[in-house]
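Write out this protein's structure.
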Amino acid sequence: MRPPAGGQGRRPARGRQAPGKGQPRRGNARPVANRGMRLSRRPQAHDHRKRVVVMRLLLIVPLVAALLQLVNVQGFKAGALAELASKQRSTEIELPASRGSITDRNGVQLAFSVESRALSYRPQAERAKYADKPGGYDARAAEIVAYLKQLLGDKVNEKEMLDKLRSDVTFTYLVNNGVEPAQARAITERFPEVIADYRATREYPGKSLAANIVGLANWRTDDPNPHKHNLHGLIGLENSRDNVLTGEPGRQVVDTAEGKDGVVIPGTARELQHATDGSDLELTIDADLQYDLQQRLTGYVERSGAKGGSAVIMDAKTGEVYALANDKTFDPTAGQFRDPKTMGNPAVTTPYEPGSVNKLVTAAAAIEAGVTTPEAVTPVPGTLRVADHVMHDAWPHGTQNFTTAGIFGKSSNIGTLLMARKVGEDRFSEVLKKFGLGERTGVGLPGEAPGSVPPRGQWSGTTFANLPIGQGLSMTVLQMAGMYQAIANDGVRVPPRIVRAQVKPDGTRVAEERPEGVRVVTEQTARTVRDMFRAVVQKAPGQNSGTGPAAAVAGYQISGKTGTAQQPDPATGRYSDSKYWITFAGILPADNPRFVVGIMLDAPNYGGPDGRSAAPLFHDVASFLAQRYNIPLSAVPSPVVPLVQ
């Protein structure tokens, strides 16, 4: 039976569904709208791919730029940037070397170092921190000063300290040195903004003892880096031997919180190089002898009314300086109260005209040349014309017969000039040079002066009238003693020295190189002159006493010479008739020399009881020497010899 028209009753094919309202057709019978949607997909995919490419380009370009910058930074600019970064965060710190000690010949310490601290501060940085705090920065500064005063006492001047804390500077030292480590720790624990830096306080236990020799070492305050250690010698051996005493500081790199003036960040130390401590210096001086000489010289200068004075004690054989003193000295521990005028060493830096002690040169030249003997007699007039000058003796007399021993024992200027004429100018000039005059001794002390001797080619008519009697040339007290050391050492001059050895940090002792001796005269000449100059301290009846009997020491033969030299008068340009250099040089004992002593007094009161001679001071010094070193008594006393016939 046929279904009705209109399709009613007709079963749809399997798997298909007639499209209903709101349902799309499947298969080929699709609505036009659906076909439109399918056709629009191709341009959408194209746009999507375009967006992906653009996004990739946007990512790639900065990556390439970053890569190029990385190559530039790590390649071309790596060194410069690394150096800049290191400077911004790293600080090199010196690891201090321990400064060597200075001792006398017996190990007595004259200078050594002990660990201490310096206190520093950053006013600008600290003031900024207290801008908004109660009480403000001034209250904090006052609190710091009060605590430092309580703990450190006289090391703190409250006004000066407050001025430093309130100053508009980036860095300042509050206390440059001398704060004990325990005190510094207490201060920094209470006030972390106070910086404590390592220092080594230089101690001088004898204070003024040998200060002109040892000198002074201190810390520099002009270095803006508080982590740099700069204890250096300023004067004396502390200065001239600074490289030996200082050693080599170590090095350490650390990171700091605020650049090189900042606080070290714990645990950042690296690149460690250990410090090498300095060597000790062992001197030739004897501390006890040095002390005695300083005291005796200072006392005698005061009693004589002299402007000043110097003295030296030397070993007769080795030239070692056992003591060297000036009447004015200083205390290296006195800080700002040290008088700069007392910090020199005139015994080696300040020449003077020696006067009659220089007659030793004339005597040695005359004996060496064979023109006289100690017993030979010479008629000596009261005056002698030389060129346009008339020379006199220190006392008026007519023509007298002097032995050669008497010429020097009585210190006759006229007799000495007659001897010098027999020697001759050229030969006399050669002997002056052999005695080392006009040249530095090389003792090892800074600022040594060479003295002066007129060159032979520049001598005038009166030059040879002055030099044989010790005027017209100059020398230091050390050079003067060196002349007598040559005679005491059988004619061989050994240049003096004051450093005996270096003692390295490992205990190795390195002796200082001994200078070679210089033959001045023969052994026989030296002994003859030495014996002849015993007449100077001779006390005998009549006119047979020498000029320096006050220098005699009971039980010992003494050989020596007094000296009185006129000082130039700046007002007249001539020699003064009232101001003198008074000198004495002597040998103890003359028969078996052990020590030489040289003394100079500058412008003493010539009319006073102690102003005319340094012989009494020699006696006192020589007496102490004989006692301290148990010098055997002379086998026989000095023979009394005729001086005037």
